[in-house]
Amino acid sequence: MQSKQIFKVHKPGVLTTFQDMGRSGFQRFGVPVSGAMDRFALQVANILAGNPRDYACLEVTLVGPKLEAVQPITIAITGAALNPKINQQPAAMWKTIRMEKGDRLTFGGHQTGVRAYIAVAGGFAAREVFGSMSADLKSGFGSQLEKEDCIYGYPKDSPAGIGLEPSQIPRYSKHIRAAVIEGPHSNVFTAAGREHFFTSPHVVDASSNRMGYRLQSEKITLKKHAEIWSEAVPFGGIQVPHNGQPIILMADRQTTGGYPRIGTVISYDLPKIAQLIPKGEITFYPISVEEAQEKAVAMEKFLRELKLFRNHLY
Please, what's the b/e burial string for 179-190 (b: 16 or more CB within 10 A of its CB; e: otherwise)? Predict the structure, then answer.
């Protein structure tokens, strides 16, 4: 199918990139996974637009772009509340919207969250690297939007007004609790270090980015000679360098790391981390693998039922 131009970029925003579910299967070659920081919001946007869940969306960070529709399209915007507008009128989030040729999508002041996702019915067309459209600027894969860029896709007819119930829409807070599965290097932390990790609040440093969230908190102490071999690291893994300040590994994380990991944020809570603003506060609590699996199953069930419901209606 031949792609068509769907947007013209008048302003790019602070950091607007194509992201999907990432390029899995290449970490053994040193290729980061990347992909959406908030995978839940990305998947919901695609489901509402009638796309496969893993299609690429535009990930908008804090300050959004100004986009002009080149032809009629249907979009869905999820994630952070960045005050989207179409032709200066408030645009609904977590619901499909029809844009006509010449309509302009803009974003106003930040309200809650960090990252919004724009899906277009039919999907975007962008260059794939290792099977993914996800931009990884550090690795040189893809790029962020620039002024006067043309955005292409495969627009298809899709109804407007398909959305979540208000009770289903995530609420992003500046103070969150996140569940952590402990390990694999619990034995290299002191008892006091573990206690501080789970009882002290952790503040997100302003230098945090898509690679990792640096946290400021009471020092998480390690035992002397706490050295480990470099090994593969997961999304949500929490490394603790020798300075005792934790780092949560995020979407653009390196493929391996040599710092001890005190635990891993469960997948169910990663969207809350991804939407936490700089200077936001996290409190961690331990959870069992079985409890984490139950939460992961609940999220997957919600996404599958949403897709079935959407397909049943249309």
Answer: bbbbeebeebbe
Q: Residue 187, Cα to own-chain centre: how many angstroms?
A: 31
At 234, list the tokens: 């997961």
Contact 33/42 with Cβ under 8 angstroms? Answer: no
Domain boundaries, the chain: 4-169, 175-294
CB distance 94 to 169 below 8 Å: yes
Tens place of pLDDT per residue across the chain (314 aa): 899 999 999 999 999 999 999 999 999 999 999 999 999 999 999 999 999 999 999 999 999 999 999 999 999 999 999 999 999 999 999 999 999 999 999 999 899 999 999 999 999 999 999 999 999 999 999 999 999 999 999 999 999 999 999 999 999 999 999 999 999 999 999 999 999 999 999 999 999 999 999 999 999 999 876 778 899 999 999 999 999 999 999 999 999 999 999 999 999 999 999 999 999 999 999 999 999 999 999 999 999 999 998 887 76
Give me the CATH topology for the region 175-294: Cyclophilin (2.40.100)
Alpha-carbon span 56 to 298, nearest angstrom: 24
How buried is residue 218: exposed, middle or buried, by Cβ count under 10 Å (0-12/13-18/19+)? middle
- pTM of the predicted model as reported, rounded to 2 decimal places: 0.96
